[in-house]
Amino acid sequence: MAYFSILINENSNIPTVKAMMKDKRTDLDGEKQKRLLLRLVAEMSQTDTDLYYHPTSAIAQKLSEHVSKAPGLSSDERSLLTGLGWRDIQILLSMN
């Protein structure tokens, strides 16, 4: 068994189970972030009806500010968005 794991670790072309699970977790977090951001955009659209016509970069900057002040976010939601800059938010919003 130890010999097998050494072979896998030495051959970088073969992904390890741990690496594959980390990729899946990252994908899942990205999807959660995107859903949360879209929900926040919908909430912001109710008060700023012209938001739809703003460029994605401007919306991302507004969202970044909104996240830091938003009282309605749970601690899980806030931690999910912690560390995202406005450019990260822009990229997530522009992904299909």
TrEMBL record:
Domain of life: Bacteria
Protein source organism: Aliiruegeria lutimaris
Lineage: Bacteria, Pseudomonadati, Pseudomonadota, Alphaproteobacteria, Rhodobacterales
Protein name: Uncharacterized protein
